[in-house]
Automatic annotation (TrEMBL), chains A, B:
Organism: Coilia grayii (Gray's grenadier anchovy)
Principal subcellular localisation of the protein: membrane
An example molecular function term from Gene Ontology annotations: chloride channel activity
Protein name stated in the entry: Chloride channel protein
Family matches, as CDD domains: ClC_1_like
Membrane topology annotation: Multi-pass membrane protein
């Protein structure tokens, strides 16, 4: 306001002298104040801007701005993760309190048990769908696509971030009834945060960069896992695995740095909130370290790995079937199209009925929350022995075990019921159109499988050696750990769960058996080119992810470029004038244009960027209509050319390796096509569509054939 | 022998009927027996071959042969590692026994202490040098080169394997006097084993493949670390880091599988040899898990990381200086050229004099072996407190501590002497021309740095809180762990030592501080583009490793191909006849030849492989001298072309990404060069030579200038 009360020159002098602004800045400020008089607080804004720029210059002289960006990403993601955990815990406690207050009124308890999660999930669906229709599901398949190089700008927007955040919190607050997790959406959330921070950094550095760099996405994927579980190294391994074909080693250090910052912040926050005394593992276990397992037990762990691998095949088959069923069944497809919230509410109500503690829920530890389930399964205490001697003094840990062996039932019955019920419930929950993760449920399911085997072995070894007196102590918790890693690894076709299991529990004594079980389970699950959990979703959602599509159409990678490429419509001729270039820029959104000698022969001469063309137009805007591009500009030479004989896989590898935005396809010097990421996406979509049509036709013919025969 | 006693037809029938051989095999056998009558045991050999082929067919129907190859690599490497450990332990025990028998005779003890390691190292030098001159040193810089795609066949030969094996065993048997490790050469050994197994598999599958695949080398690198320490996951991380630019994600599963097999075998062998009761970490620690460290101690860990980073810069500077000094000093260069064994013996004698337990060795725990040093430094017991109360009951663990606080000296003095002495000894040991690793010594040195800080903090906190009575127990072992990871990570510019430290000790409670210290130390060590330990060796040895060379000549990556490429001498003309092709094949060893329309215009038409040309010659060997290649053969089309404007970095990335053997460089359709791995190597060598010459000239001018001024 002050700037208006004196002459401009004086104002510049005053500002430059008294407020420490540079003369140029002060002048800029005054120019802006006269040209944009409707913006308030000019002086303050300019001072803040000046301060920020100075701090930034000082900081970036010591440390690159992008490093700060990585650290900030880790810290912010961890803060979001912790805040979400707190909110979810409060909502869960409210539900538990209400349920316990209604003790004695079975009907009211039933309503409380079923309607609370149902309404939360319905809310989650309607909220996230109304803000961003794409926000349902895990998000990992989409992140895999983006990491493979495909641009999906809808999946990195702020509104999506908001929708996912609120939707996920509601879904998690529905508790173990719905049995959904956090890690998948969190990887996606972290990617969105990363993209936003990258834009912020770019604008702070004065650059106009809209597209997030590949590095940032890789780092974000690692941070997502790390700040969800406080497990930095498995976060980095996850980002290596999720990359698809090539992992750029230069992303390794930033990933680990950001992941370590995220994990440290996440764990320090629980120290600050007095949950823990120091920075420790999330689900810390304290198995006996003197003899964690007999060497011969390694065979049992290997068998557990194979069992988990076989079970994962069953689960994945059911999952693929139900995804297809929901899409093809007419009634369900109609409901899903119009009444998503109703569907969510209905399904969750059904799930809640099945887990009601006064019915079947009594035999499946339904009252425990997700984290309590995992902790109880990982405990060292032998449930079988506990249920035999009911008179042992019951500590706080054994309270968890009371849930697993309620009045008179052994742990084998409860674990069996749990495994049977949760299998179909898990498959059903995957169809819910809410933002939620599917990793943690699978992890817990695997832990239950391992626990069952472990308890069985304990039982057998106790019976077998009861005559000799000294039974070798088998730790069923170790089997639960290995089972969790093996099953979740087999379902997602990845090995990072093995390290995640170790980092989550801080239990390094079982490193070798856990790794062995995960490797064997993976070997079984990957055989015969079966699609993984994420592949199945990518195929159903028709996401352009090359490695997933290979599962359905293995021919894609070896297809010749000549068969699929389209002739480029937007080329710059050597002799192009101002008018033509103006038209070209208006009609096409591309950022790089090929330069050919003439439209007929199309001999490729080089390439020219959009910015260069705009600069050319700017230089000749006043009247130079006769100017030719060739007289005033030198093109970039073309560095890498593909021929029409190159395969799709080669084009994809080169594009990923050199991280270029476009490659030219030539045949004896003539331009026949341009490979960009959007072109790659188009090719994949068309190819999949063609293959799917082909498949559907074949299937229809088959199904028509069967009744007539 | 039997086959000669009857007619051939009968023999075939007999063999086919009675010995289960197929008729074709039996006939082949007889043909061979008549054409190669000098080979004995024909029948037996053929039966064995038949058996092997049947087993192979049965196995490969279930499992790919290459998977068996990976598993075998892990198991064999672990067996070699364990056998070497056993031999070294026996040799060390012999030395200790001799030394203890000479108690009371100081001169004899001195001779025993010094001559034993000196003669072992002299033996190691002369043996390994006489079998394979390249076998000295760690081998990791060479492995990095091979992983980057450069072919170094000398470094994968069987004689090299043998030289390295024996040389390394002798070097390790010299004990902590020489202070050298095992992991570097073991990575190299594993690579050689992998290459050999790959050749074996290829010949078993009936393929003639001489060059080991890139996959096998990556897997071998992981297996080397895993079977040396029993640490599979850090082995895989090591192989990711050592890859340079791109890590192919498809190598991840085989690497982890082979590494897990290696680690499991290595740890099971120690169970079988009654060293351990079950599969556990190599240097297992059992820190208190209830409160491993106070949250505020994280700051101390961060400071330790920075300290280790700074120290690593000092160490690396000394290392570079001495490498340069040994090469440039006239007397030393002469000795190194002719009398390598004398040099080794002399240096080791000097080192042994310095560590003689009755002199300075008394104050630096010289009697402990490498593994005892590491175990003692990682112990939870507080050395400061121990040395205060000498009356505490002394268990087996405290015996190690007696070495660190001998009569009247505190642990601070011994650690200080150790750190000061070992710094120059370590630098000096790096010049020894023997096959030995430099990772473990650096790891132990870092542990000593951490221990010193930890003991200091214990001392301060004990003094500060002695008035209040209850001192918060600081665990100096945790600092040793973090220091080891941070210092070794900073020296090698890698982060896998952080995970290695955790896997070696099985101590997951300190994951976050160890990671933090390693990250900070790395940040400091990598700043200002300082070369790492391996970079320095690669630069001095003039190895064609792109990422190392970037440290000396950063221009290499951005140099245009047009500036460095040579016109190809061996091209096939479209009109080439039989005679010309015969000449070409005789004169050139290349496996792929470019096809041009004629020698003058050199328009690239496609490529043709050596095998195709040989087949062409074979088809027209009798008289068809007038046949032209173009009439009878279709060429492979060229899929990827580079232009002369592409940079060296782009050529390198494309070659790595598509794993092709050659790329063609064209300019408007004309062939101007061929990029193969040997061409890449030539360019790098020439460029380095030019830069070195330039440097040397500049330095000579500078040194000439100084005296005159």
């Amino acid at each position: 306001m002050r700037a208006f009360q004196c002459s401009p020159e004086k104002a510049v002098e005053y500002l430059a002298m008294n407020e420490g602004l540079s003369v140029i800045h002060a002048e800029e400020m005054l120019t802006a104040s006269t040209t944009q008089p409707w913006k308030p607080w000019r002086c303050l804004r300019w001072m803040v801007k000046e301060c920020v720029q100075r701090t930034q210059a000082a900081v970036s002289s010591v440390l690159g701005l992008h490093w700060l960006c990585y650290v900030a990403l880790g810290v912010v993601t961890a803060l979001v993760s912790f805040a979400m955990n707190l909110t979810v815990a409060k909502l869960l406690r409210a539900h538990n309190w209400l349920y316990s207050q209604l003790e004695g009124h079975a009907v009211l308890q039933f309503l409380c048990w079923t309607l609370y999660p149902a309404s939360l999930c319905a809310l989650s669906t309607s909220f996230s769908h109304s803000i961003c229709p794409h926000s349902a599901g895990s998000g990992v398949p989409e992140v895999r696509c983006m990491l493979a190089g495909v641009e999906l700008p809808d999946y990195l927007s702020i509104s999506h971030l908001f929708a996912k955040l609120v939707g996920l919190t509601c879904a998690l607050a529905a508790g173990s009834t719905v049995f959904l997790g956090k890690v998948g959406p969190f990887v996606h959330l972290s990617t969105m945060l990363g993209a936003y921070l990258h834009r912020l950094c770019a604008s702070a550095a004065g650059k106009e960069e809209q597209k997030p760099k590949q590095e940032m996405l890789v780092v974000s994927a690692a941070v997502g896992v790390a700040s969800c579980f406080g497990a930095p190294i498995s976060g980095v391994l996850f980002s290596v695995e999720v990359m698809g074909t090539h992992y750029a080693v230069r992303d390794y250090y930033p990933s680990l740095l950001a992941a370590a910052c995220g994990a440290l912040t996440f764990r320090l926050l629980s120290v600050l909130s007095r949950e823990q005394e120091t920075v420790q593992a999330l689900f810390k276990t304290t198995y006996s370290t003197s003899l964690p397992f007999q060497p011969v037990e390694i065979l049992a762990f290997a068998a557990l790995g194979l069992l988990c691998g076989a079970l994962s095949c069953v689960y994945l088959f059911c999952h693929r079937w139900i995804l297809q069923f929901v899409r093809t069944n007419r009634i369900l497809a109609k409901i899903m199209a119009t009444e998503k919230a109703l569907y969510s509410g209905g399904v969750v109500f059904l799930l809640a009925c099945a887990t009601f503690p006064l019915s079947a829920g009594h035999f499946m530890a339904a009252k425990l929350s997700m984290s309590q389930l995992l902790s109880s399964l990982l405990e060292e205490t032998q449930g079988y022995v506990l249920s035999q001697n009911a008179s042992v003094p019951q500590g706080a840990e054994d309270l968890l075990w009371q849930a697993w062996s309620p009045s008179g039932t052994t742990i084998f019955v409860t674990l069996g019921v749990f495994l049977f019920m949760k299998l179909w419930m898990l498959v059903l929950a995957c169809t819910l159109p809410i933002p939620a993760g599917y990793f943690m449920p699978v992890f817990i399911y695997g832990a239950a499988v391992g626990r069952l085997l472990g308890e069985g072995l304990t039982h057998v070894s106790a019976n077998g050696t009861s005559s000799q007196g000294t039974a070798p102590a088998i730790n069923p918790g170790g089997y639960a750990l290995a089972g969790a890693a093996a099953f979740s690894g087999a379902v997602t076709h990845s090995l990072s769960p093995a390290l995640l299991a170790l980092e989550l529990t801080g239990q390094h004594t079982h490193a070798v058996p856990v790794l062995l079980a995960t490797l064997l389970a993976n070997a079984l699950a990957r055989s015969h080119h079966r699609p993984s959990f994420y592949d199945a979703i990518a195929i159903v959602k028709k996401l352009p992810h090359p490695l997933s599509l290979v599962r359905t159409c293995p021919k894609l990678l070896s297809v010749r470029l000549g068969q699929v490429i389209q002739a480029p419509t937007t080329v710059v001729e050597k002799q192009s004038g101002v008018t033509h270039i103006q038209q070209l820029l208006n009609s096409s959104p591309e950022s790089v244009f090929p330069v050919v000698d003439c439209q007929e022969s199309r001999v490729l001469l080089g390439s020219v960027s959009r910015l260069q063309l705009e600069a050319f137009l700017h230089a000749h805007r006043d009247g130079g209509l006769a100017k030719k591009l060739v007289d005033h500009w030198s093109f970039q030479p073309v560095k890498i050319q593909l021929s029409a004989e190159a395969t799709f896989k080669q084009a994809y590898s080169v594009l990923t390796a050199v991280r270029e935005q476009c490659l030219f396809v030539t045949e004896r010097g003539r331009l026949v096509g341009v490979i960009t990421w959007s072109e790659i996406k188009r090719i994949m979509e068309e190819f999949t569509k063609a293959t799917t049509l082909h498949h559907q036709t074949a299937e229809r013919m088959k199904s028509n054939h069967i009744p007539t025969s």
